[in-house]
Amino acid sequence: MNVSTTKLNEKLSVCSQVTIDDLAEIAKAGYKSIICNRPDQEGGATQPTHQQLEKAAHSLGIQFAYLPVEIGKVSMEKSEAFHKLLTELPGPVLAFCGSGKRATALYELTQLETDKMKSEEETVTAACSWTEQAPETIPVPHGSTEKSLLVTAACNWGNAFDIVVVGGGAAGIGVTASLLHRRPSLRIAIIEPSDKHYYQPAWTLVGGGAFDVTQTVRNMADVIPPKAEWIQAAASGFDPDNNLVQLADGRAIGYRQLIVCPGIRLAWEKIEGVQETLGKNGVTSNYQFDLAPYTWSLTKSLKSGKALFTQPPMPIKCAGAPQKAMYLSCDHWLRERTLDHIEVEFNTAGAVLFGVADFVPSLMEYVKRYHTKLVFNANLVKVDGAHKIATFEIKDSEGNVTRVDKLFDMLHVTPPQVAPDFLSKSPLADAAGFCEVNPKTLQHARYPNIFSLGDACSSPNAKTAAAARKQIVIVAENLLAAKEGREFPNTYDGYGACPLTVEKGKVILAEFGFGGKLLPTFPLVDPTLPNRFAWLLKAKLFPWLYWNAMLKGREWLTRSTAAN
């Protein structure tokens, strides 16, 4: 039988999600009844509804009962209903939910009632035992009418996981897959509200007409590792003293270890007027899935006029992306012989073109080729789309700031970026709002059972998918070492990579670590010069590796450094 079952007693077994194709095998195995404890569509469009399962089960002579229980909401009332079904349904009975844990919790709670534990305090402690946790005992007053609520609050029925991962982006999916590859028995939950997963590094190519935007998105349900439980909800805060992640819907998810990787938030609200004009009036951004194709549309249609490209203060995702948008547009205009009629300007809030000096000479050659005007210490603060006016705050050498209005025909905006509010306002945050970690181990500075990686962690590396790819190995191995009481086997060298697409067909593959140290994967190729090999990596190999290796726990090209 394809479904892996756990036998709880002579009549009841539990398992994870059942599909229609599994039912024939379940009937063949001798099960007479099925109880579905998973709410319809909790697992997305790929999850069959209980009506579909019930119809197929009845055709095989299996009785079917639907008792949906949301994650974190196993109550005494639900437990009693579950017990009633076990009494009424012919056995053997198979109960299932997303992972089998809620069905197990329902059974355990009924057993606790049947056994009549000596005190309510013992009940709470025993009720949590199925999770293999040892939480502090929370006494429950005898005769309390709030018994089920207190038990649920104390134990977080159905959601006390070995590991909780906050964020279903590249870092979250990748580290979950790597952990399950190392320890398949781990009970891991991923908290992620979105039903879509994006390969964001290709959006610059989309904006340059070199990649199909539809190839950058997949259903979240298709990339969540099969052995992980997806909690499709938004995180709203952290209670690290009690090992809880708070959800926006009021639930709390318990963990033994926590991985924080919710990414970075695009703070469009920091630029007055820009949200009202995005996607029209010549205002675009490669930092959004729906806007990257508009960048290409604007580039193709612009024959003359003024094109502005902006870069806000750090931190941002991929520090080279703002100028990559400019280079690809300019390359198209050069090929179309319209560049001489277009005034191109790159406005950056920084004081240099790129933070790692080794790559600046090659980049400056392209700045000259495209006749681009560089304006440093210029931060976009307002956009009037209707009148096509961009307002910048420009700082001079003495620190004085003046506001300057600039007309445009095309405006590519890189939005300011900040840590998500639920992280920045939590006990996990550093002064800048990011999850405070030791940059070499990626373990939290104050809570040893918490790790962080990706754009949300405080490590001073470049915020790129390539950095997350290397950090995944560090976190997976160090977290397991912490779990097992071993010394950390790996340290992070700050690796990040920014494939700088300076023209269609050529890329400068900028790979570097802490302090700007060059860390080339292919040292025989000069990493500071543009080449076609790096373009093929960027446009062909890296997307394939992302979907088929990084998100599946296959750690190719992810060498790590042994700890000192």
UniProtKB/TrEMBL annotation:
<dbReference type="InterPro" id="IPR023753">
    <property type="entry name" value="FAD/NAD-binding_dom"/>
</dbReference>
<protein>
    <submittedName>
        <fullName>Sulfide:quinone oxidoreductase</fullName>
    </submittedName>
</protein>
<dbReference type="GO" id="GO:0070224">
    <property type="term" value="F:sulfide:quinone oxidoreductase activity"/>
</dbReference>
<feature type="domain" description="Beta-lactamase hydrolase-like protein phosphatase-like">
    <location>
        <begin position="8"/>
        <end position="111"/>
    </location>
</feature>
<keyword id="KW-0874">Quinone</keyword>
<dbReference type="Pfam" id="PF04273">
    <property type="entry name" value="BLH_phosphatase"/>
</dbReference>
<dbReference type="GO" id="GO:0048038">
    <property type="term" value="F:quinone binding"/>
</dbReference>
<keyword id="KW-0285">Flavoprotein</keyword>
<dbReference type="InterPro" id="IPR015904">
    <property type="entry name" value="Sulphide_quinone_reductase"/>
</dbReference>
<keyword id="KW-0560">Oxidoreductase</keyword>
<dbReference type="InterPro" id="IPR036188">
    <property type="entry name" value="FAD/NAD-bd_sf"/>
</dbReference>
<keyword id="KW-0809">Transit peptide</keyword>
<dbReference type="GO" id="GO:0070221">
    <property type="term" value="P:sulfide oxidation, using sulfide:quinone oxidoreductase"/>
</dbReference>
<keyword id="KW-0274">FAD</keyword>
<dbReference type="GO" id="GO:0016787">
    <property type="term" value="F:hydrolase activity"/>
</dbReference>
<dbReference type="GO" id="GO:0071949">
    <property type="term" value="F:FAD binding"/>
</dbReference>
<dbReference type="Pfam" id="PF07992">
    <property type="entry name" value="Pyr_redox_2"/>
</dbReference>
<feature type="domain" description="FAD/NAD(P)-binding">
    <location>
        <begin position="161"/>
        <end position="281"/>
    </location>
</feature>
<dbReference type="InterPro" id="IPR029021">
    <property type="entry name" value="Prot-tyrosine_phosphatase-like"/>
</dbReference>
<dbReference type="InterPro" id="IPR005939">
    <property type="entry name" value="BLH_phosphatase-like"/>
</dbReference>
